[in-house]
Amino acid sequence: MSKRLWSVFTNDMEHCYFTGTPYCHRHHIFYGPYRSKSEEYGFVIPIACYLHENEADSVHGNPNQGLDLKLKQMAQQYFEEHYGTREEFIRIFGKNRL
Q1: Which listed residue, 10, 47, 77, 95, has the most CB atoms within 10 A of its CB?
Q2: What global pTM score does this model have?
Q3: What is the distance between the alpha carbons of residues 53 and 55, in angstroms, rounded to a whole number?
Q4: What superkingdom does the record give (predicted)?
């Protein structure tokens, strides 16, 4: 059985958050060593496959810039409004993105 991913940003994990396309990937906003924390805090978002990878402006094609940075900033702002302080965010996710 696959893991049930959820998002603080949408209840619809079947359509891209930005385009509405039904053909999407579920992107962990904080990936690598922070992947499990993204799942724990709901920082997973459905995005069109071309926004996810293989394109120059995709989140994995342009890390920590453009759309990838925007998503990380959205997640940090949500964290600070709902979960804890900036210091706690930095402790959990490595650094300040705002």
Answers
A1: 47
A2: 0.93
A3: 6
A4: Bacteria
Asked whether residue 41 is assigned to any structural domain, the reply reads yes
Do 50 and 16 touch, CB atoms closer than 8 A?
no
Is residue 52 domain-resident?
A: yes
Tell me the C-alpha distance between 40 and 4, whole Å. Answer: 11
Length of the chain: 98
Q: What is the per-residue pLDDT for 2? A: 56
For the chain, what is the domain count? 1
HSE of 22, CA atoms in CB hemisphere, 13 A: 0
Judge whether 44 and 38 are in contact, CB under 8 Å.
yes
Give the Cα separation of 49 and 36 in Å (integer).
Answer: 21
pLDDT at 80 over 90: yes
Q: What's the CA angle centered on 98, arms 96 and 88, to 5 degrees?
A: 40
User: Using CA atoms in the order 64, 65, 68, 72, what is the torsion angle rounded to 10 degrees?
Assistant: 60
